[in-house]
Amino acid sequence: MEDHNLVKNTLDQIPQANSNAKRIIGLVKEGGRITGYQLSDNSIVEKQQAVDMAKQGQIAGVGIAHRGDTEYLKSIPDGSENNNLGNLPSVSP
Question: Which range of residues forms the domain containing residue 60?
């Protein structure tokens, strides 16, 4: 079992989600890379738009990390693998 505090340290920030925040329910992929997300209201948003929304508390259950100059979303560790972003279904844009 991973140390949740160690995993949380890989996140740059964990925004406080609003009470009406959406959840990510699917991944939009092109060539195996995540390019966007399907939200719980069935809308599709691009990756950067989702990062901006998460920063504003509009997406729950995610934190923001970065690789190089690119920011991306990561699941906040909660002990369950089922709701990790990598385990969500792929959807068509």
Answer: 4-91
